[in-house]
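Hi support team,

I'm filing this because I wasn't sure whether my run with zinc ion finished correctly. The job status page said complete, but I'd like someone to confirm that the output block is well-formed before I use it downstream. Pasting the exact inputs I used:
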Amino acid sequence: MKKLAIGIDLGGTNLKGIVLGSDGERRHLTRIPTQAEKGGQQVLKNLLSLIGVLIEKSGDKDSVIGVGIGTPGFIDSDGTILGGAENLPGWRGTQVFEPIMEQHGLRATGGNDVTVAALAELKFGAGKGVNNLVCFALGTGVGGGIVINGKVYKGTHGMAGEVGHISVETDGLQCSCGQKGCVEMYASATGIVRLARYFAAGEDSPLAQIAKTDPDAVTSKLVYGHVAKNDSLALKVHHKATQMLGKAVGITINTLSPDRVVLGGGVMMAGDVILEAVKKYAARHCWPEIFEQCTIVPAQLSEDAGVLGAASMAFDEFQ
Ligand SMILES: [Zn+2]
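And here is everything the job wrote out:
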């Protein structure tokens, strides 16, 4: 008989959920506001109510084997949020799995949002057909997720995969994690904007003019729009960001020897120009024999990666 799993993607703005069939059928994609500003307990209440709605919509509670949750930050194996979710005030310390069992009688599992997205890419997207994959998500920060032998690798306390905090520059920029020179400081959307403002002083290009007169107008999208026009500042930023990212990707490939490295997140809207530069720089930080066995590709799933990966995680653990 076909089994069902519920997948939840917890975002700062919306809570998204899906009912996924064991055959890959996607049903009842639903979203409700997270109401993050009302605190952790309200977010939990909304999460429980969304699960209730999805059970109802499935029309077949007995076939639902469990719930998977993708959350910002870290979640440990018993379902306690350990931190790292700055966009959800009061979410840290919240116990998530027990209330799901109490209220809905379902087992739950979970992982960091990029970790579950990595699993989704392996099952349905850029990693279809391979066993070992690492995701770099270039957004406000740089998130990461690792899948080994087809299963999410969570590490000892559910905190594995923080590739964004690989330190790529000795005595580099100070990161919020306490280290210096984390790749997130250079290759995230925020990092790219920071580099553009920093390098603008020594440049006289159209982008430099904008960065000097209206620094708030600089976005990673604007920078990459100017890369396409060969703007000297934009190119300088692009080289620095992709050198740093390439180094982190190369270190990761050397360490794990994955089949695929998947680059996703908003910054990757710029596409091939980033991909090609990262391939070039990653090769310099990796054994050639290991590098040759790995392909670096763009993510294929955008919006739905979180819910699909979360539900897939429930199948992996409870089926
Ligand atoms: Zn860091």
